[in-house]
Amino acid sequence: MDNSFRNIWLLNLSTFFFFLGISSVNPIVSPFSMTLGASPFLVGTLAGVTSVVSLISKPVGGLVGDRGYRLEAMILGNLLSLVSGVLYVVSALTGSIWLFAFSRALHGFSMGIFFPSSLSTAVDLAPVGRVGETLGWRGMMFSLGNIIGPALGGYASDYLGFAGAFFLVVIFSAVGALFVVPVRKDVGRTLVPVEKSEEANYSELLRPYFVAASVALLFFAASYSGVTTFLPALYKELSYPQRVFGTYMMVIGVASFVTRLIGGRSADRMGPIPVSAAGLLTVITGYMLLIRFTTPPASYASAVLIGAGFGLAVPAMQLMALGNLPQRIRTMGSSVYTMFFDLGTMGGQFALGYAAESLGYDGILRFLPALTGVALLILAVTYFEGDKNG
Asked: What are the alphabetically sorted keywords of the record (predicted)?
């Protein structure tokens, strides 16, 4: 087996297990917070603290990766996630909301260390002319985690309690770290052959396609946070079991899994902006359907559209942002780009959480299409200004 192909897939599997751990927690963060007596605003805050810390730690992850330690960063990110899983379990056993908040923060730090290197290594190892496709495969591992993780977390919390569900993070993170080890042994530090005399010039990130993709991602993430944070809280308020939202996220994950590779390959052929725009339009349609049909089983139709649009847009937007960046700054570029996802998620959780205090959890759904519409407008302006290939 070609070592490059093997290494790509070992790192894909590490990405899968890392995000499997994260996604297994997502459907139970809000319900668990509510059992600890959290108000709607505090529910949003406990969900959002992960994004805050991830936002802060991603420049650290970017610098570490650009110094040639991308694989070590992926191992460390998994190990920090493992520790956060242990603390989740302890917080569930003790009922400590403060320990839970700290665990969420540590999980965010692990994301900031892991994700920039995970994304940039996909671009580093991609065959020539197939960067979008390779990002699509990596994105499929993310989607597969979102297919399996929420269902596992929801069912585990229903049948094993919150502590049993949180322990899944420990298992998945350990496995994720182990998949990076053979790649580290194979390539050492040769993955990033940066000349010592060549200084990284991060001002090169101020390119129109990179800036546009990043700002569009911010608004897209803000809209998606309304689904991941407040829809489970709404279902909890309506007395649905946690597995209902787990199933909803599983449907999103399946639809995203199906379209990820299509999105990546199409972006290689057509350019990233048209494919990104098609994905965002599909997501907006899904949000409109969710507003009309909020509860299951009818709401699952919206999950199909949201997931399908997500799968089309994400690899295309990643290609738009990172495809033409110099290798010497690619990890920092990945870091800054994904920071906009965290900033959007954080802003969405806090702002929508504040709005939910007066409008209720169902009332905030009406904001989601407009937020994604802003992202679509940014891409449209970039396209018609002539930056069609990113």
From this structure: Cell membrane, Membrane, Transmembrane, Transmembrane helix
Q: How far is CA 241 from CA 154, 296, 306, in A?
A: 8, 12, 22
Enter the tokens of residue 76: 């460390």
Superfamily name and number for 1-190: MFS general substrate transporter like domains (1.20.1250.20)
Radius of gyration of the chain (CA): 19
pLDDT tens-place string over residues 59-96: 888 888 878 788 999 999 999 999 999 999 999 898 88
Homologous superfamily of domain range 201-389: MFS general substrate transporter like domains (1.20.1250.20)
* Domain boundary assignment for the chain: 1-190, 201-389
CA separation for the pair 238, 233 (Å, rounded): 9
- Residues 240-296 pLDDT 10s: 887 788 788 888 888 988 898 888 889 888 889 999 999 999 999 999 999 999 888
Cβ atoms within 10 Å, residue 266: 22
